Amino acid sequence: MKALGNISRALLESKLAIGLFAGVFLASVIFFSVSPQFGWHSPNDLLPEVPRNGGSAPSGSPTKEHNDLAPPPVNCTTESPAVNRTTESPAVNRTTESPSVTKPGKDKVTTNSPTNFTGEEIAPSPALLPPLKPICDFSDHRYDVCEMWGDARTASGANRSRVFFIPPPSQLATANAATWSVRSQSRKYIPVREVLVRSLNLSDLHDAPNCTVRRSVPAVVFAVGGLTFNYWHAFSDVLVPLFTTSRAFGGEVELLATDPKDRKWFLGKYGRVLRALSRYEAVDLDADTEVRCYPHVVVGLRGHRDFDIDPARAPNHYDMRAFRLFVREAYALPPTAALPCKSGARPRAMVILRGGTRRFVNPDAVVAAVERAGFDAVRMEPGGSGGRLGGMGMDAVARAVDACDVLVGAHGAGLTNTVFLRTGAVVLQVVPWGKMEPHAEAFFGAPAKHMGVRHVAYSIAAEESTLYEKYGKDHPVITDPDAFYRNGSNARYYWREQNIRLNTTRFMPTLEMVKRMLQE
Ligand SMILES: *[C@@H]1O[C@H](CO)[C@@H](O)[C@H](O)[C@H]1NC(C)=O
Ligand SMILES: *[C@@H]1O[C@H](CO)[C@@H](O)[C@H](O)[C@H]1NC(C)=O
Ligand SMILES: *[C@@H]1O[C@H](CO)[C@@H](O)[C@H](O)[C@H]1NC(C)=O
Ligand SMILES: *[C@@H]1O[C@H](CO)[C@@H](O)[C@H](O)[C@H]1NC(C)=O
Ligand SMILES: *[C@@H]1O[C@H](CO)[C@@H](O)[C@H](O)[C@H]1NC(C)=O
Ligand SMILES: *[C@@H]1O[C@H](CO)[C@@H](O)[C@H](O)[C@H]1NC(C)=O
Ligand SMILES: *[C@@H]1O[C@H](CO)[C@@H](O)[C@H](O)[C@H]1NC(C)=O
Ligand SMILES: *[C@@H]1O[C@H](CO)[C@@H](O)[C@H](O)[C@H]1NC(C)=O
Ligand SMILES: *[C@@H]1O[C@H](CO)[C@@H](O)[C@H](O)[C@H]1NC(C)=O
Questions:
Q1: DSSP codes of every residue in 249-313
Q2: Of 278, 294, 307, 358, which has the fewest CB atoms closer than 10 Å, so is most exposed?
Q3: Is 113 in the pocket of ligand 7 (CB under 6 A)?
Q4: If pLDDT is split at 50, 70 and 90, which confidence band does 55 have?
């Protein structure tokens, strides 16, 4: 936990390289977990107690998925000895825009029995190809990516699924063989099952597996493991960057998921998003018995920022607003709906009631205050049971959020539901004690604004923190949060130990302001 404060700042600034398990800690600390089968939160928030070095999960660990957060602290640069991650990459320029590769047609899905293909026979004419060989770019601080055109073949593997690339004939004679091991997600300091990308040359051409399935559409290979048991991470680390990477293909793309061993539910839970991105059923690459051959493969996801997109770097200048509208469409929500309150109805506010940390210890008072301020309050209960909305699936969550003008909740993964709000809706984020405002802004505030949703932050007073009750007004946890960031114990106190006793008198003016915003 030592480095956590610094790590947290580093992540926030998106500049510094960070250590592997410190990254796991931070990411885990900030958000709480999701009950996979229900699409809603687990009541616990104990992720930071990551078992390491073979240790077992803490007794309170909410789900067994967390056990795979227990990698040895590996070096990002220590791959298997044969692998040189930097080979061939320095000279390469990243291509964000993919060339148009789609010519939809009936012959797009062709299944062949093993054939007499060789690389040279398969490779399209060099004239069709971009100039360079397989492109592996490990330079971004957030993601690694390889992109190849021509003849790329996938195959499952015991420990890593593989992608083989056969350079076009014009380059084959002079090509150097190279191998990369890629974390095909967009949080590269978090371990996921890696994908082995091999660029072949004349010496090892025979290693290329023979195609059993040939496609004329591109493929995107991505890992669904990592921190995706957490709702926010599922969007931030996979769904948003998957959108950025594959939306421009207009559905004419195959999605190949790796690393689903404990996340088999991922492809089901987020199936609507995946089906909206691709006309073809997503493939579990690790379990695939085919050798799939493509004219264009991207391994990895280009994620620009936490739960956010940098339009300047995205194909078609996609932004988070486009992402939100896309998600709404995927969940069959109305495309251009006015806010519910514009129909003359009382504005409706969904109150997210966390069950673990950073929960409201006076939830009924909070809900009553929301009602008193003139809203219809809808409670979003934690866990899979107990509330009106508890235990509901993603479709129901999407519809329930869509029917609201406002999302109210403490800093935490539930605010990810912003993706289902209508344009102009308001997210009212309650920011816990402990200088958490920059995180509140980075993880939810800025993304909400980029989505076309308004964001209001309410920072609690010290007296509203249960840390105040527990440690007293003179304890450094109240008087000197900086000290906790300095020694890395900030997350332990402010993210994990803290709950909130909202002072509804103090909160009321903020609620009233939000109500006025909706009337504008
Ligand atoms: C990780 O990389 C650093 C810097 O390259 C090196 O000094 C260190 O020995 C490596 N650690 C391991 C476990 O390989
Ligand atoms: C890895 O690639 C770099 C840059 O091309 C090269 O200097 C280095 O010798 C390579 N290392 C190995 C083990 O091949
Ligand atoms: C990369 O892009 C820059 C700017 O567009 C260009 O000057 C440079 O030649 C490119 N390098 C390669 C290897 O294509
Ligand atoms: C296999 O090779 C034969 C002879 O070169 C050729 O006629 C045939 O089309 C090839 N099969 C495929 C599927 O390319
Ligand atoms: C797969 O991983 C296991 C354990 O990590 C290792 O013993 C085995 O040699 C690996 N197999 C291959 C084919 O790399
Ligand atoms: C293939 O690549 C390897 C590794 O870069 C190299 O040692 C070998 O000479 C190459 N083979 C040919 C035929 O160029
Ligand atoms: C691919 O098929 C050819 C012709 O049947 C065969 O000679 C070759 O060994 C096969 N390659 C692999 C990797 O199975
Ligand atoms: C960090 O500093 C605070 C304030 O001095 C102290 O209360 C806390 O115990 C320290 N934690 C660690 C892990 O050193
Ligand atoms: C709640 O907030 C009001 C208005 O800021 C303040 O007057 C009151 O003392 C607060 N109550 C508590 C218990 O802190």
A1: GTB--EEEEE--TT-HHHHHHTHHHHHHHBSS--EEGGG--S-EEEEEEEES----BTTB--GGG
A2: 278
A3: no
A4: very low
